């Protein structure tokens, strides 16, 4: 018989380890928890949060195959308990798409992002912060798959919504502005690319400071663009500039 009080203590210890970035110990606690819930309480509501935290820990430890395995289990459990199109189920599926990106399974990620965005937008609206971030991730995947026009259309659409629903001074906004600048450069819209790089660079300086790696990457992007413009070698811009995928 499971001792819920003891299991709750272990769960709190796992969360504290995550907070302190002690992911090895957090993994140990969470795997123990999941084993006990699987054995004694397979339908308990807490099992969803345990799976979610364990997936997160595996991702932090770059163990994406294990993260995928647990995330798939969490999706199945969400579907059973909450339903296929429940808010939480769809967001967990977007987490799986993120894992596919890390595993370089871009076509699978694309299909899953598109599925989540369509269903979430139809049921809950397309202006929620959570789904705006998923739309941004789909734009990143389009870029990787060299569907540049699709990516630009998506980024431009989500940029307006992010300013409206997340804020005009948010890292999400500046991520998209940098990514748009990369794609404008690819389309040889160099002056437009430069404006977007400059705007995102100033934004990152405010949010992170000049020495943060994100700020430094955008600064390199702008520098590469300026060098290419000055030397009239616009076709060589893309290898030097980077789309931002994660913090």
Notes on the protein architecture:
This protein has 247 residues and is an all-alpha fold. Helices cover 77% and strands 0% of the residues. It has helices at 4-19, 23-40, 46-60, 64-81, 87-102, 106-124, 129-144, 148-165, 171-186, 190-208, 213-231. 36% of the residues are buried. The model has no long low-confidence stretch (mean pLDDT 90).
Helicity, in percent?
over 70%
Cα separation of the termini:
42 Å
Q: What is the β-strand count?
A: 0
The number of distinct helices, counting runs of at least 4 residues, comes to: 11
Report the average pLDDT across residues: 90
Radius of gyration: 21 Å
Task: Summarize the model shown.
The chain is mainly α and 247 residues long. It has helices spanning 4-19, 23-40, 46-60, 64-81, 87-102, 106-124, 129-144, 148-165, 171-186, 190-208, 213-231.
């Amino acid at each position: 018989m499971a001792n819920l009080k003891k299991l709750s203590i272990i769960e709190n210890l796992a969360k504290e380890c995550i907070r302190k970035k002690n992911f090895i110990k957090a993994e140990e606690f969470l795997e123990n928890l999941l084993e006990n819930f699987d054995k004694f309480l397979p339908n308990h509501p807490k099992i969803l949060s345990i799976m979610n935290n364990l997936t997160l820990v595996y991702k932090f430890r770059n163990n994406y195959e294990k993260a995928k395995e647990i995330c798939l289990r969490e999706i199945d459990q969400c579907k059973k308990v909450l339903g296929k199109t429940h808010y939480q189920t769809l967001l967990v599926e977007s987490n799986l798409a993120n894992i596919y990106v890390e595993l370089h399974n871009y076509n699978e990620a694309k299909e899953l992002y598109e599925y989540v965005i369509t269903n979430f937008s139809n049921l809950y609206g397309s202006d929620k912060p959570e789904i705006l971030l998923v739309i941004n991730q789909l734009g990143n995947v389009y870029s990787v798959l060299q569907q540049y026009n699709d990516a630009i259309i998506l980024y431009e659409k989500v940029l307006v919504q992010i300013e409206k629903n997340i804020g005009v001074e948010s890292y999400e906004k500046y991520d998209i502005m940098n990514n748009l600048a990369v794609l404008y450069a690819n389309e040889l819209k160099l002056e437009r690319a430069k404006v977007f790089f400059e705007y995102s660079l100033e934004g990152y300086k405010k949010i992170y400071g000049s020495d943060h790696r994100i700020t430094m990457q955008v600064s390199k992007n702008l520098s590469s663009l300026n060098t290419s413009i000055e030397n009239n070698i616009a076709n060589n811009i893309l290898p030097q500039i980077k789309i931002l995928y994660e913090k």
